[in-house]
Automatic annotation (TrEMBL):
Name this protein carries in UniProt: Tryptophan halogenase family protein
Pfam family, one: Trp_halogenase
SUPFAM superfamilies for this protein: FAD/NAD(P)-binding domain (SSF51905)
Organism superkingdom: Bacteria
Record Gene3D superfamilies: FAD/NAD(P)-binding domain
Organism per entry: Shewanella vesiculosa
InterPro entries: FAD/NAD-bd_sf, Flavin-dep_Halogenase_NPB, Flavin_halogenase, Trp_halogen
Amino acid sequence: MKIQSVAIVGGGTAGWLAANHLAKALFNQNITITLIESPDIPTIGVGEGTVPTIRKTLQSFGISETEFITRCDVTFKQSIKFQNWLDSHRHGRDNFYHHLFDPPSSMGDDLSSLWLQNPSDAYSQLVSSQFDVCEANLAPKLITTPEYQAVQGYAYHLNAAKFALLLAENAKQKFAVNHVKANVIDTRLHLDGSIASLVLDKCGEQEFDFYIDCSGFDSILLAKALKVPFVDKSQELFVNKAVVVQVPTDPDAIIPPYTKATAHQAGWIWDIALSNRRGVGLVYSSAHLDDEQAEQKLNRYLSGQLDQYSYRTIPMKVGYRKQFWARNCVALGLAQGFLEPIEATSIMLTDFAAGYLASRFPSDSRQCESLSERFNQTMSYAWERVVEFAKMHYCLSDRNDSDFWIDNRDPQTIPAGLSNKLALWQEYVPLSEDLFSKFEVFNVENYLYVLYGMKFLTYKKTMSESSLVLAKQHAARIRRHSEQLCQHLPAHRELLSKIHQYGLQKI
């Protein structure tokens, strides 16, 4: 049967990202796309960090970066600054490292071997100029830098609710996506088990040929209607709750150009500065910390001001669906699964999966079986790599101040794939060839920043005198480049103010 109509169930970032990806790819193919959004269910709206790939996505949708920044309270994100993830007695009470967005050693050969000669220094500062740019709270570009172009690599912090509205407007105006506000009260199936129709409270029964489940944690199509089981990952990733709050900021306050990720005894705290407020969330393991203790910790982090703001506790089901595409239904966003907010993987996986689906969307229902098999293999691989990368942040820590950190180092909780990588990297500096698939979610530079930021020590091999000289010259070039950037790049808030006033140059 030819596929002529698609229903996307659920709005928010996931639903409207999917709508833009699909509608753009299928434009002028006589396929109608309808997004059905409940008027009664608010979006989660706490994941306000992105990764650099989102720039390419937004540009492909034809969204002006200037409009995006001005309408969605956007700030630039050049890094994640991990604070206190290591033992305070060995590394100091204010130990930190940067997971930067510019690749390491961009002006020559890899400097990891040079760093290993003296690993007491900050790895990210040795290998990248972006370290100093971040620590100086500078922007990643100039007002004269065209839209989506960069001096330093960057992603964004954003207001998730406003972002969803901008995506919705773009999908409806540019790509003719239909928008229905209604609740799905029932799902009816064909005899073969595929979805036949949706029953809506305001529109009655509606039939479509293909369905996208963006209904969040509820997963009303893939999980509830099609009974696709859940793959639990809570034995590897312990964090399963978050206390979240939004804190207004002074209009003249310095805006850090990075996400702050501050570890505590049973998890960590994210702190994301937008142009007018901070999004703060304390994530924790309920097996190691109770709700009252979590609130007390967040209150201390906010200098005793938590009760001045509205806050809520969000449970997180840690894992993903065994299948992401079943029969004529694909799940995206939280309906696929959720691990935890570290490294902003939720929006990243949604964007990746929606773009992949759009590039391999079936024109006929007979294609679903072969396409779904490939899609499920790819997405399962991607989710497992995210599990490994997230777990690495915990199992590399040498903190001993609580059972949470000690339990995270238990070999039984470490995925086999990660254990194999770490065993290899104890002997050899990581290479891109160590990562086998083009569907890797994180590249070798991501691993390098986290591994050596957390003082993981690869066996130190003696460098030849000539190699040592070249490496030191390379490091000196990076230091000079850092000084130049710090002299010429504007303060983060200064650039944002200019963008609001003048806009960025169109490409």
